[in-house]
Design goal:
heterodimer; A: mainly alpha; 4 helices; 0% strand; flat; B: alpha/beta; 6-stranded parallel beta sheet
Chain lengths: 101, 473
């Protein structure tokens, strides 16, 4: 991947993120913040690669901490987002059933 | 060997491509209540694919270490994420977000230390291109700030850190630390003097900066700060993605970076404050000037009287705030409202964009209690309706209903859009004590002629109100 292609990816991804979130109702802001928090848990693959290439004890130690933290970000982010959205689903069903105005 | 390498590389690239697509589709689905739940499943599938194929990355070693770290981190996060109460969600998100920032900083540290030291086999230090080393440094400082800053945000929301640390010259000190980190980072990036000592000092300064930046920020501003650190972590991940030449990290990190920035702006706008204002001026700084403008007395009321008032009302608007979250009162409140609805009272919930500690915090709690969507209204929808409401029931909300924001130019919250609860015929405020809100500003609403104070824990007060409404016959 050349530098300029990376820049194009960066630009297009930035617009994508902006577009995806710009039409979100306030009601979903917290789950969505949590969801995007989960998505940057992809740092896990980078931490794994960094630890996988580590040679010195210092590199291994930092790499280990990095993978540990990244796995926490990914799994924790998933669990709390899933729990929040689970409630939204059931509440939506209840609202549809009651239909009070 | 060559064919194996190529096919493995292709498998990894294709998998990362699929992961990036699943992330974007997942986020898209999360932006509608109907598809939201499937959205996180899609994104989760993407994460699983990316993680599994990364084990096949060419030239990887240290598999036992990697496996141990993945398992340990996952188990700890799974356990804590399942256990945490819904009311404590904001600080958990801050915590997990900080972990991501720390991981991005750790990647930068590994790359920069390797660059600054002779190789393990005694060879010369590895050279990185200037662009690569600069991006590692920038991602490193952002990640480190997000890591220590989120940890402080967690401590504040969890109640481990109770006061805001402010002293004169604090901003100057922060700028000094930032300059120091930039100079050290510049030296490291240019590889003019990339000794390990410089790399270490650079990261220590960046970590300190996150702490000193976050300590003076008040609890009321925490939603904005958490959102900002979420966006920053995304950026740090994207930059480290450039360093590692990893497209999945670049795309996912950038998407989160821009989405998080937009979300941060929306929140700051809802509070009528600029981001710079949130970060660089403590909310409490000017509060002293505003207290003199409020006159009158606080008038207490008994739960029994409130119960009768609501039972015979036409329309009740409930305004929840952080106090409801603290007291875990959402279930009791909904029970109370169901009683009222059964009696033919119109009940609506009014949600201020920044009520609670995160945007939509109140919606999550009300959803947990089972309140249907169509009873919940946001600021623009509901503000015209307060005129027609017999009772506005304020539960642990404060700054978001403070009419001072409309009238008093000297108030720090002047101009912030508020819920016009003061327009209701009767205003009942459930509040634990007589203190000012999180911002430290006196609330003019509490002193109005049509306002009565119902002191006590929100959950206990709601239980008393339920009894009172039942007794009203």
């Amino acid at each position: 991947m050349t530098g300029i292609v990376a820049l194009y990816i960066f630009m297009l991804a930035a617009f994508t993120g902006y577009e995806v979130i710009s039409r979100v109702p306030v009601i979903l802001h917290t789950p969505l913040m949590s969801g995007s928090n989960f998505v940057h848990g992809i740092v896990l693959v980078g931490a794994m690669v960094a630890l996988g290439a580590a040679h010195t004890p210092l590199e291994k130690t930092i790499g280990f901490i990095g993978v540990l933290l990244a796995a926490g970000n990914a799994v924790g982010g998933y669990v709390v987002t899933e729990r929040m959205l689970e409630m939204f689903k059931s509440s939506g069903a209840r609202a549809a059933k009651k239909g009070s105005h | 060997m060559g064919v194996d390498f190529l096919s493995r590389d292709l498998l990894i690239q294709v998998s990362y491509f699929v992961t990036a697509a699943l992330f974007i589709l997942g986020l898209k689905r999360m932006s509608s209540p109907v598809t939201a739940r499937s959205g996180i499943l899609w994104a989760g599938a993407g994460m699983l694919v990316a993680t599994v194929v990364t084990f096949a990355y060419p030239g990887m070693t240290n598999y036992p270490l990697i496996g141990a770290a993945v398992i340990a981190g996952s188990v700890l996060a799974w356990w804590s994420g399942k256990r945490v109460a819904m009311t404590d969600m904001p600080q958990m998100i801050a915590l997990y977000n900080g972990m991501g920032g720390g991981a991005a900083a750790a990647i930068a540290a590994v790359e920069l230390y390797r660059m600054s030291m002779p190789g393990a086999e005694g060879g010369a230090a590895e050279q990185l291109g200037l662009a690569t080393s600069s991006l590692a440094v920038v991602g490193g400082i952002i990640g480190a700030v997000s890591f220590s800053g989120s940890a402080i945000a967690f401590g504040k929301l969890q109640g481990l850190i109770n006061r805001s640390f402010r002293f004169s010259g604090q901003q100057a000190l922060n700028v000094l630390i930032l300059m120091g980190a930039i100079v050290l980072g510049g030296l490291v990036a240019l590889q003019l003097n990339a000794s390990p000592v410089f790399v270490t000092s650079f990261f220590v300064l960046a970590l300190i900066l996150g702490i000193t930046m976050t300590l003076p920020i008040g609890g009321a501003d925490m939603p904005v700060v958490i959102s900002l650190y979420n966006a920053l972590t995304g950026l740090a991940v994207a930059f480290e993605g450039f360093v590692l030449n990893n497209a999945a990290m670049i795309i996912a990190g950038t998407v989160v970076g821009s989405a998080g920035t937009l979300l941060t702006q929306l929140m700051a706008k809802a509070m009528n404050r600029s981001l710079g204002n949130v970060l660089f001026s403590g909310f409490g700084d000017t509060a002293g000037a505003a207290t003199g403008t409020v006159t009158g007395a606080l008038k207490p009321i008994e739960a029994a009287d409130v119960g009768v008032m609501m039972a015979f009302a036409q329309k009740v608007i409930v305004v929840p705030g952080y106090g409801m979250a603290v007291a875990q009162a959402q279930h009791k409140i909904w029970e109370l409202c169901q009683l009222l609805i059964d009696r033919g009272v119109t009940v609506r919930f009014a949600i201020h964009p920044v009520a609670g500690r995160m945007p939509g915090h109140m919606n999550v709690l009300l959803a947990e209690a089972g309140v249907p969507y169509d009873l919940i209204a946001d600021l623009d929808e509901i503000n015209a309706e307060f005129d027609t409401a017999d009772v506005a029931l304020i539960i642990g909300a404060n700054d978001v209903v403070n009419p001072v924001a409309r009238t008093d130019k000297s108030s720090p919250i002047y101009g912030m859009p508020i819920l016009n609860a003061d327009k209701a015929k009767n205003v009942i405020v459930i509040k634990r004590g007589k203190g000012a809100g999180f911002s430290g500003i006196e609330n003019g609403l509490f002193y109005l002629d049509n306002t009565r104070m119902l002191y006590g824990d929100a959950q206990k007060a709601a239980a008393e109100l339920i009894q009172a409404v039942k007794a009203a016959g």
